[in-house]
Amino acid sequence: MSLSDLLPMFFILAIIAALIAFVVLYCRAFYAGRAKRQEKVEQQRKRHGGEYVLEWDGPLAQGAADQEFGRLVVVIPRKRGEDGARFYEKGVIVDQKRVPYSEVKDIVYLKGRPGRKYTLKAAVRDSAVMWIYRKKGSTIGIRDFGYKFDDQTMENIRTGLGY
Prior knowledge:
The protein is of the alpha+beta class. Helix content is about 40%, strand content about 20%.
C-alpha cells in the first residue's frame, strides 16, 4: 500500500477524532455551567438556613398565602382566563402543578424575538419562555403567548432562585 492509498483513511480518522473532541468539549462546558448554577443555588440555600426560597426585592403580589409554600411573592397572569403562574416564597403553582423549589433542578429563561409572527411555528420558536426543570416529573414551560410577563420580571425570578 502506498501513501496515497492511506491518505483518505487518515483524513476520515482525523474528522472522526475532531468530532469526538468537539462533543466532549461541548459536554464538559455544558455540565460546568450547570454545576456553577447549582453551586449558586446551594449558596443561596445556606443563606436561608437550608431552605430553597425565592429572594424578591420588588413589591409583593396581592393574594392569600399558601399553607405549604408561604406568602405570595409574584403572579404571572394568563392572557386569557383567571388563573396564572403563582410564585410563592417556597414553591410555584403553574396550571394546577405544585412544585416546591427543593424539587427544581434548573430554571432557564429564554428571551423572545420581537416582531410579527406569521405562522404558528414562528410564534413558538420566537416566543419568550421560562423552563422549570423538575428533578422528577415533566418540565414546566411558561410562554409569553399564554402569560403576560416581561423580561425583567422573569429574570428577577430566575436570579431570585439562584439560577
